[in-house]
Amino acid sequence: MSRIILWRHAPTPSNEGGVVQGTVDVELDDAGRERAAWAAEQLAARFRARGVERVRVFSSPLRRALETAGALTALIGGEVVVDEAFSQRSYGIWEGLTWEQIERDWPEEFARREAGLDPRIPGWDGQEAVAARVLAGLERLWDPQVPAVVVTHGSPITLGLLAAIGEPASSLVLGRVPHAACASVLKVESGAWHIEAFGLGAD
To answer: What confidence tens digit (pLDDT) does each residue in 70-97 have?
Structure first.
């Protein structure tokens, strides 16, 4: 059975330091590349075990995602196709700050974000728009015969999957996929989306 695997990119130095990246184009360091290579081998092994001969690989345009995707195509072949539908949301004026700074200087807006709501800050990409963008990408990429791996970011994964299963974008039912881990989603006979796995490959 085909499926779409939403794979969160490997961690960057900014991730490890608690710095908000959003649209800032940060690349992986050696530790991140090592983590990407390890996770890619786990994915490749699953495809081999299932006898999958062809996998389509897509990626957010940001370098941390492209590098992670490249770790997989280095093992299974093929090319990485950039797809803007799966780019990271903008975190507006919070980009480049640490979460500690944000919690201290914007306590009310930080609390809204933690509660699943959009903070009211300049430049923030609203969750409804992000959810719709990612779901449209999933619908476009779905192929019942050929699986796909999409390397993307935490917010697009969670928001896209919430939209796929009919949950509001503010729902906290799914939580967040860890870096270099993935979620697996597929369409069942009725045409509904089904989340097969969430957080697969997490430590």
So the answer is: 999 999 999 999 999 999 999 999 999 9
Whether 164 and 170 have beta carbons less than 8 Å apart is answered as: no
E strands, 28-160, where?
56-59, 80-82, 148-152
Structure tokens at 166: 């009919």
CATH code that applies to domain 1-85+128-143+152-165:
3.40.50.1240
Q: What is the pLDDT of residue 40?
A: 97
Sequence ranges of the domains in the chain? 1-85+128-143+152-165
Strands (E), the chain: 4-8, 56-59, 80-82, 148-152, 182-187, 193-200
Query: For the chain, what is the mean pLDDT?
Result: 96
Which residue has 């908000």 as its token pair?
20
d(CA 23, CA 20): 9
Collapsed DSSP state (helix, strand, coil) of residue 134: helix
Q: CA-to-CA distance for 53 and 46, rounded, in angstroms?
A: 11
This prediction has a pTM of: 0.95
| Alpha helices (H) along the chain | 13-16, 30-49, 63-76, 99-105, 107-114, 127-141, 154-164
**Cα–Cα distance for residue pair 140/49, rounded to 1 Å:** 27
The rounded percent of the chain whose pLDDT value lies above 70 is 99
Instruction: Dump pLDDT digits (tens) for 172-203.
Output: 999 899 999 999 999 999 999 999 999 988 65
